[in-house]
Design a protein that fits this description.
By secondary structure, this protein is an all-alpha fold. The protein is built from nine helices and no strands.
């Protein structure tokens, strides 16, 4: 059931012809097949609302999904999506805290770089642009074909100025 359920959810997300309202209705219908309070269903329902621009409706669903216990694939996604939603709702300080906690987790999430990108955005939203640039450059540096050490060093220098 789970594999079929996940495939149907993915098919809804992949259907670019759906309006936000139709996507939301379809996600809700498939999510309703799972038990009440199921973290994965809550996560998908939150994502549908988030994608439709209904951040205030998405946030409690993301929180409930995280409180309910998501697997290691969906938990970091939910943290990032909730943090982004909170930033959009004017709660960027909370988003910064969530993302810092996510980045401190060990072992590191496969979405570590993605969490860093959203941390940089949240830092800009709270007026800490130099720290945001430091985070972004630290994340980018290992992916560069040249100048990795220089960019990492400059990122550290920017970060020191914010301490």
């Amino acid at each position: 059931m789970h594999d079929d359920w996940a495939a149907r959810i993915e098919a809804i997300w992949d259907d670019d012809a759906l309006s936000d309202e139709s996507r939301l209705e379809r996600i809700d219908a498939v999510a309703a097949e799972r038990p009440a309070g199921d973290p994965l269903a809550l996560f998908e329902r939150g994502g549908a609302r988030d994608a439709a621009g209904l951040e205030a409706d998405a946030a409690p669903l993301y929180r409930a999904a995280l409180d309910g216990g998501l697997d290691d694939v969906h938990r970091p996604q939910a943290v990032i999506q909730l943090a982004s939603t909170l930033r959009n709702l004017g709660l960027a300080d909370e988003a910064v805290g969530m993302l810092r906690a996510e980045l401190a987790r060990r072992p590191a999430s496969p979405l570590h770089d993605e969490a860093s990108a959203f941390l940089a955005l949240a830092l800009v939203s709270v007026g800490r642009e130099r720290e945001a640039a430091s985070v972004a450059l630290r994340t980018l540096a290992p992916h560069l074909s040249r100048y990795t050490c220089s960019v990492a060093s400059y990122a550290e220098e920017l970060g020191e100025d914010t301490a």
